[in-house]
Amino acid sequence: MISRLLRRAARIGLWVGLAVLGPAVAASAQEPPLVVQADRIEYAARTNQVTAQGNVRMTWGKFRLAADNARMDLATQEITAVGKVTIADESGEMRAQAVSYNLRTRRGNALSASTIYEHVYVSGENIQVGGRQLVAVSTMVTVCDPANPLYRITARQIDVAFGQRLVARDASIWLGPIRIMTIPSITVSLTSRQTTVRTIGPRSGFSPADGPWLSLEQHYDLGNRTVAEVEYKYGVRSSLHVTGIARFDREPFDLHLAVGRSQAWDPISEDFRTYTQAALALVQPGDRIGGTLLNWNASLGAGTFWDASSGVSTTRAEALLGVRTDPLPLAPNLTWTAGLGTRLSVYGTGGRRTIYTGDVALTRRLDPYSTVTLGYTHLRTDGATPFLFDRVKLQDTISVLYNRRVSLVSHLSFLAGYNFAIPEFVGGVEYGFQRGDYWYYTLGVETKYNTQTNSYTDLDYKVAAQYDCVGLVFRYRQQRQEFWVEFVLSPSPRLQVPPVEGAVPPGGGAEASAGAGGRSRTSCRSSLRSSGNTTSAASSGEN
């Protein structure tokens, strides 16, 4: 009875939360003030400009800037900063000798700059940022410690489409001081950390389905916003897999063509299934709904598939629609997110299947390093698929996740959940710690216990060691008497960027605050002097 009430409350919260999100966001949409701190601040009323000198700190919402000297035009919101410049927001951090940046357009230019995006380090003589694009010249790219990288790519120019890809032109690959090869271009996927790891370099390992295996993913920029992705994987047991995907990006939709022999994870058997496909899909990768924090994505696709495990060969037509929220603050240190989705598949055998999904999560930040998340996930199906690679696992799960990460020093996570649809208890704990400057170790245990049969369905042990950007992961599955090994290039823990706080830390010096619309107010913890059209504040330690 209690479990049914908990699940019903979670479902009601999911639907009601999505219904009221739009008005709540509109009510909270208000531009933050600009706050400036420095040893000396001058405000020129005639030109509406603020000049700051010495230990400059600027904050505008989640945007922050630190520099030796800076100047800002309050009317155009254009900032020019020189000398040990650091700019940061929720997406990352950039350091440079000089920066010109517009708060309104989010466009800028940086000299002798370096930045990190999706755990990839990029440095260049000149970096230009505009919207969702970044262009750098005379550059270096690495996932290793940039001070002494084991693996790096140098290029004449790098083009970055945030959330999509990084293209290095006239590129050279280096292992330490040795140049391995030079090719016209290298493309790295930036859709997620996992895809970045797959495309930055080769991977190898051992798995029950493949035996010893080697994998390499190559991306090719064909121009005119067209990208080809080819994944090569050879397993001693599973033979050769080659999958090619051509992506034609045409806003607001993309066209994806996928052909080849590939693998998919089967959550029922918890192993890889091999299949061959020729499929075409029209994809809306995601877009915001009006002025709310709701985002939607959709796709329509059709193709023919052959399942190597079941021997079934038939067609599949599919439609997908999903809605998800951005994190919504409910209280200090408390955020709420939710999502809904449906996927309809029609098969050439005459069968059809509909998948309904929903999830909601409350996350509370306990301190600067720790969070706890209470979540609920629901997945149910109507109908069945004839393919084994296409199966999904029913979900009616309530879970609690605790996560603590102390920068480069250590991390600890603990998960406990119960899936009422199986029924099954799911738990896990993982601990990681650093030793020395480059070594990082991880130990973990994951378990699944079926409360109907009173038996463990899975009991997995994980040991991982990483030296800078080179990692080795070993997993042993006790119930299945299986072991998995993977050797991979992985983003170095030394690349992590500290989280951006919402305000400049308190400190000495003058402070000025101005609304984003240009109307300004100036206040100082020290003396305030006015002369003509100029207001200046100099630090003196007086109140």
Break the fold down into its secondary structure elements and pairings.
Blueprint: H1 2-28, E1 34-38, E2 40-44, E3 49-60, E4 63-73, E5 78-89, E6 92-102, E7 107-117, E8 120-130, E9 133-142, E10 151-161, E11 165-175, E12 178-189, H2 193-200, E13 203-207, E14 211-223, E15 226-235, E16 239-250, E17 253-266, E18 271-288, E19 294-307, E20 313-325, E21 328-331, E22 334-347, E23 352-367, E24 370-383, E25 395-406, E26 410-419, E27 424-435, E28 439-450, E29 455-467, E30 470-477, E31 482-489, E32 510-514, E33 520-523, E34 527-531, E35 534-538
Description:
This protein is mainly β and 543 residues long. Helix content is 6%, strand content 67%. The protein is built from two helices and 35 strands. It has helices at residues 2-28, 193-200; strands at residues 34-38, 40-44, 49-60, 63-73, 78-89, 92-102, 107-117, 120-130, 133-142, 151-161, 165-175, 178-189, 203-207, 211-223, 226-235, 239-250, 253-266, 271-288, 294-307, 313-325, 328-331, 334-347, 352-367, 370-383, 395-406, 410-419, 424-435, 439-450, 455-467, 470-477, 482-489, 510-514, 520-523, 527-531, 534-538. The strands form two sheets. The protein has an 18-stranded antiparallel beta barrel. It has a 16-stranded antiparallel β-sheet that branches. Strand 26 and strand 27 form a beta hairpin. The protein starts with a helix and ends in a 5-residue tail after the last strand. The model is unreliable at 5-29 and 497-543 (pLDDT under 50).
The overall pLDDT, averaged over residues, is 82
Which value, in Å, is the CA radius of gyration? 26 Å
Structural class: mainly beta
End-to-end separation: 62 Å
What oligomeric arrangement do these chains adopt? single chain
Count of runs of 4 or more consecutive helical residues? 2
Q: What would you call the shape?
A: globular
Q: Kindly state the number of beta strands.
A: 35
Biggest sheet architecture: 18 strands, antiparallel, barrel
How much helical structure, as a percent, in the residues? under 10%
Low-confidence segments: 5-29, 497-543
Measured by DSSP, the beta-strand proportion falls in: over 45%
